[in-house]
């Protein structure tokens, strides 16, 4: 078993050796995600456009893809959500190694890939323990979007499920009003 600093060093080494891959430490284990596919990136581009369109910056928010999130579940634990909505002053919450404290995150979103179970299971618990107010999972494996919101005592209540043809309302706790198309979250922008 690796010591925590050795674990962080191993994750840093993998990040350097595997360009384009996402390297995270979840519950003390290194998780490597392959480079994203086109539809996944289209979904993320569309999200940036939607948050811009409704004036999220004017509401004191930033919306960023691939920003490091420090997790309180272990000394080296960190995630790199596909998309995050953070407070405008998030830079003041830098912990270390381009990881930011969870209190500045209002919403994180993951679009599942080959290791979908990490997004749909492991990250649910870690994001809840971090107190992330809203977690959206575009679950391409099960063809639905899950919304986890308002964690209590380190756990999210059961998620809301959204099927194709519907929209997901961004929770009030994020600080803006916006409905997101399930189909676009799952398939990318057509």
From TrEMBL:
GO MF annotation list: endonuclease activity
SUPFAM superfamilies assigned to the protein according to its UniProt record, in alphabetical order: Restriction endonuclease-like (SSF52980)
Signal peptide coordinates: none
CDD domains on file: DUF820-like
Alphabetical UniProt keywords: Endonuclease, Hydrolase, Nuclease
Pfam families according to UniProt: Uma2 (PF05685)
Domain Putative restriction endonuclease intervals: 15-180
PANTHER family: SLL1072 PROTEIN (PTHR35400:SF3), SLR1083 PROTEIN (PTHR35400)
Name this protein carries in UniProt: Uma2 family endonuclease
């Amino acid at each position: 078993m690796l010591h925590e600093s050795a674990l962080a060093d191993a994750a840093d080494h993998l990040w350097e050796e595997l360009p384009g891959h996402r390297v995270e430490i979840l519950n003390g284990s290194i998780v490597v995600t392959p480079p994203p596919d086109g539809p996944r990136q289209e979904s993320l581009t569309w999200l940036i456009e939607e948050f811009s369109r409704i004036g999220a910056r004017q509401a004191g928010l930033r919306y960023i893809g691939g920003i490091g999130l420090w997790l309180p579940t272990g000394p080296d634990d960190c995630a790199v959500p596909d998309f995050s909505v953070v407070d405008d002053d998030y830079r003041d919450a830098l912990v270390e190694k381009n990881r930011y404290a969870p209190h500045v995150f209002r919403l994180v979103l993951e679009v599942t890939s080959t290791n979908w179970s990490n997004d749909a299971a492991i990250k649910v618990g870690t994001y809840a323990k971090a107190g992330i107010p809203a977690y959206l999972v575009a679950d391409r494996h099960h063809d639905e979007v899950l919304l986890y919101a308002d964690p209590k005592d380190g756990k999210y209540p059961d998620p809301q499920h959204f099927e194709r043809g519907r929209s997901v309302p961004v929770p009030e706790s994020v600080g803006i009003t916006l409905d997101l198309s399930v189909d676009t979250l799952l398939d990318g922008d057509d």
